[in-house]
Amino acid sequence: MDVSDMEQDAIKLASSAVEFDQKGCVNEAIFYYMEAAQALHLAVIAGSTLDCASKVEEYSKRIEELRKVKAAVRIVADLVISKKQINEQRAKFMVQDALEADEAGKKDEALSLYMEAADLCIKAINETGNSSVKKQLQRLAKQSLDRAEAIKATKQLASLSQLDSLLSFVDTKEKPPTNSHTTSNHTTSTAKAKDTAQPTNRKYTKEEIDVLRFGSLINGREYLPFMAADLQERFAFPMPYSDKHGVLELAEKQRSKLGGWKRPDELMEKPQMIMTISSLSIMQTLVSDCSFVASLAISAAYERKFKKKLITRSVMQISELRIDSDWFKLLILCYVPCICYFASKNLFFSSIIYPQNRKGEPVYNPCGKYMVKLHLNGVSRKVVIDDRLPVDKHGKLLCSYSSNHNELWVSLVEKAYMKVMGGYDFPGSNSNIDLHSLTGWIPERQSLRDKDFDRNTFFEKVRERFHKGHCLATISTGVMGEADADRAGLVPTHAYAVLDVQVVRGLKLLQLKNPWSHLRWKGNYSAHDDAHWTPELRKALNYDNQLAKEFDNGVFWIDWDSALHFYDTFYINWNPDLFPKTTCRHASWLAKDGPTRDSYSLGNNPQYRLEVSPTGATVVWVLLTRHITEKEDFAENKEFITLLVYLNDGKKVYYPYSPPPHIDGVRINSPHYLTRIQVPENGPHRYTLVVSQYEKHKNIRYTLRVYSLVEFKFNNIEDPYRLKKRVSPILEHNKIEILQYCWEWTAATAGGCSNNKATYGNNPIYQINIEGNGQAQLLVELRAPKDYNNGFDIICVETNAEKPFNKTTSGSFRPGYSALEISVPCGVYNIIPCTFSAQQLGHFFLDIGSSVQSTKIARLK
Q1: 239 phi/psi in degrees, rounded to 5
Q2: Consecutive sets of 10 residues in the chain, 861 residues long: mean pLDDT of each?
Q3: Which is catalytic among the residues 25, 290, 471, 826?
Q4: 690 three-state secondary structure
Q5: Is CATH 3.40.5.10 what the domain over 3-74 is classified as, yes or no?
Q6: Is the separation of the CB atoms in 654 and 821 below 8 Å?
Q7: What pLDDT score was predicted for residue 71?
Q8: Tell me: domain 442-569, CATH 3.90.70.10, correct?
Q9: Rounded-to-integer distance, Cα 139 and Cα 133, Å
Q10: Strands (E), 433-470
Q11: What is the pLDDT at residue 582?
Q12: Does domain 731-859 have CATH number 3.30.1220.10?
């Protein structure tokens, strides 16, 4: 948005403020005056030459005057909507829903809705004494019944007697509007008609379907992947919709103050879904979801600044996949619906809040049903809620809300997220996780305490990208003493929204917002710091700290040095549209696969091959997301995950440090781990990506998503030697033969390596006979005690071709684990497992994998 656009935005907001002020709408006037002042501030930063400072001062004074008026006026019960008004609104909403179903060709559903709408219109006609409202309802009832009769005539779905009895209640002189009927070639301009997909090639595997199905059950409730069919969800009902799980578990502070659960029409005069998206209007209450509320605040600020919708209407590039007929049959068989995917370059306009009007904008539903789309466990998922909200004994909301009294979106989006998380007794989160759930934007976590942290480079990166609209940011405090927190004006372990990032004459500053909408920073560059707020600085930031002293809305400036001292972690979420190419894999990793720790062996870790062929240097990001389905897991998060990157031509990796990792990931207890790969020019470059855990105790399901600026190939590294179970002596699995033996080195057989010439011959010997004439892929793995180094030798006894070697080894002797993958001609080979020194006793496992089914093994000694 350029300077002139920002100025026009401020003018429009100021005009709305004046209009509401003249009408006596105090809450709305305060809201728009605040927004106008904020818009003027942004215009000044962008270079506006208007006299913004005087206007900001004028608006600020008027805000204070209106606040005094508001404080003196008690909101009384007659402001809420009456029951008869609610019925009128529901009737109109149902007629609209019926029209949309009719236009979409869903005649059965449309007929039912028309009939129910007519019933409700008639009920409302009998209740109202307003002649103009009665006439409008009669017209709607007539239109609904006429259209129902037309559908009935073609589909034979309704009885004439029912229609005739209903028609007797309404005036039949009115004609239906011309757009109440649809023709076979009619198309609608609603968002529902736009949500179509393009066919592509890749389909989900059965494992991916199982992973997505498992991830649908979160805290005992099912949240299915969001599909195109969900855009046709029914929202209109003659009675208020009640979700059977709609009364959420409350936090302790909420329970102590609970007065009941109320709907918007019992709390507000004119409920609206969205009045004007603003970060300043969002208020956190008793729920410990500061990171989520901070995420809402910065999303709102982004929408306002860049005119791009993230929550009210977002541009989303979903993926390359689409459901085809065979795929759909497979899904039905597995009882797992899947999200429809679009072609990689197609953009999809969608809101996360439903229902919507024909412009794709979320709307208030007097029938009380809503659907929110959240990105959870690898895909976007549907969350259905009702509009019952917790209030105290005085009718004040106990959940987050908008300070604009009639606005609903904050409370409803929070309720949807809290429902998934198991209730308002939320264990706490961080903004990386919450923003990813809201927007699907790529999460990155930066500790401000890392020894390698480059404070200046990081700040400049954030500042540049922030003002280009490439990222959203929050910052969180760590643990601090009560006295220190009180002295600083900060809350321990608390998330703050980053609203602005500025540099003025070399001074680095952040503008932050406390989700509580009160309690601000008290140190350098705070509202009470007269020493640092020079006239030059106040003008550069269009900020008057004298006015700010009078009203604490939780928004403050803080210098970068102070932020680094008092804050622990900086969270960034990046716009995925920065990367035109993306794909993902959904997979599982069972606890039984491999050792608890992978400090010696990576042979059982999930591995992937990434091939990038750029013409110039580029970057590829890979996001590992662990799926979480239980509140306890979310709260404690004992699983430490990471992603290791090896530059070894995309081959499977068996040792953690041979070859050394190209990127050695840090294991963190977060569901998201982001890896950046700097790819040099002149490819192709082939990488091996290895999923890793610290002390693996439980099965995990995860999604691995690749984001790239250029074309790439991304595939699982198939393991032909995967062992399904431990058996002896032979396990046949398709065309792969797996052989595994558990033996031990005893005093008589622990001969040591070939350096121990006198005792080397005492070692156990196993003979492999690979039948056939071609080549065979051979994998030998030795697992032994970690107390001493071990390895093995392979002796070529005879082959049907020229001998590839007389003797080869597993390489350097290693503690705990040795492996060798080799291609050999079919024939007879002896394997000699041994320790480096003689008389090192203990058990060992010898695993042998062969790509030839006819492989036999025997112990020679």
Answers
A1: -115, 155
A2: 73 83 78 79 69 77 75 45 68 77 75 79 75 77 77 56 44 37 35 33 83 93 89 84 92 88 89 78 72 76 73 42 35 32 33 86 90 93 94 88 86 92 83 88 93 93 93 90 90 88 94 85 90 90 81 88 94 93 94 81 92 93 94 82 94 91 89 94 92 88 96 87 36 44 84 94 92 88 91 94 92 93 93 95 89 84 82
A3: 290
A4: strand
A5: no
A6: yes
A7: 56
A8: yes
A9: 10
A10: 442-447
A11: 94
A12: no
Task: State how far the Cα of 418 lies from the Cα of 426, in Å rounded to an integer.
Answer: 7
Q: CB–CB of 759/749 below 8 Å?
A: no
Q: Which residues pair with 258 in a beta bridge?
A: 392
Considering only CA atoms, which of 440, 393, 385, 439 is closest in space to residue 414? Answer: 385
What does the alpha-carbon distance between residue 811 and residue 827 come to, in Å, rounded to a whole number? 22
C-alpha distances (whole Å) from 819 to each of 99, 510, 652, 691 are 67, 53, 12, 19
Tokens found for residue 515: 């989700």
Question: What is the reported pTM?
Answer: 0.75
**Is 290 one of the annotated active-site residues of the chain?**
yes
Q: What is the pLDDT of residue 252?
A: 85
Residue 297 phi/psi, 5-degree rounding, is -65, -45
Handedness of CA 118, 121, 125, 127 (dihedral sign): positive
**What values do phi and psi take at 705, rounded to 5?**
-120, 135
Q: From the candidates 514, 542, 575, 762, give the one annotated as an active-site residue.
A: 514
In the prediction, which pLDDT does 599 show? Answer: 82
Q: Are strands 471-477 and 567-574 parallel, antiparallel or unpaired?
A: antiparallel
Rounded Cα–Cα distance for residues 251 and 586 (Å): 34
For residue 713, the SS3 value is strand
Task: Indicate if 627 belongs to the active site.
Answer: no
Per-residue exposure over 504-536, b if at least 16 CB sit within 10 Å of its own CB, e if not: eeeebbbbbbbbbbebbbebebbbebeeebeee
**In the prediction, which pLDDT does 288 show?**
63
Q: Class assignment of domain 83-188?
A: mainly alpha
Dihedral sign (CA 446, 449, 452, 458): positive
CA separation for the pair 582, 319 (Å, rounded)? 7
Active site annotation includes 494: yes
- State how far the alpha carbon of 252 is from the alpha carbons of 255, 287, 413, 794, in Å: 5, 9, 21, 66
Counting DSSP H helices and E strands in the chain, the numbers are 20, 36
Q: Which bin fits 790, alpha (ψ -120 to 50), beta or left (φ > 0)?
A: beta
The pair phi, psi for residue 522, each rounded to 5°, is: -110, 0
Report residue 784 as tokens: 């032994």
For residue 762, the 8-state DSSP code is G
Other CB atoms closer than 10 Å to residue 799's CB: what's the count? 16
Nearest residue to 248 (alpha-carbon basis) of 435, 420, 430, 428: 420
Asked whether this chain's domains 579-716 and 731-859 adopt the same fold, the reply is yes
Task: For the domain covering 579-716, report its CATH number.
Answer: 2.60.120.380
Question: Whole-angstrom Cα distance, residue 808 to residue 830?
Answer: 11
Segments making up each domain of the chain, as ranges: 3-74, 83-188, 193-239+249-439, 442-569, 579-716, 731-859
Residue 17, pLDDT score:
80
pLDDT at 134: 76
Compute the distance between CA of residue 507 and CA of residue 560 in angstroms, rounded to an integer: 8
| CB-CB contact of 371 with 382 (8 Å) | yes
Which pLDDT belongs to residue 165? 46
CA distance 652 to 551: 61
Report the pLDDT value the prediction gives residue 333, as an integer from 0 to 100: 33
Token digits of residue 467: 């003002």
Distance CA 135, CA 170 (A): 9
| Cα(435)–Cα(302) distance, integer angstroms | 12
Nearest to 719 by CA among 857, 602, 598, 611: 602
**Beta-strand relationship, 640-646 and 817-825:** unpaired
Q: Where are the beta strands (DSSP E) in 636-788?
A: 640-646, 672-679, 685-694, 700-708, 712-716, 731-733, 736-745, 766-770, 775-783
- The one catalytic residue in 41, 375, 405, 494 is 494
Please give the single-letter amino acid code of residue 438: L
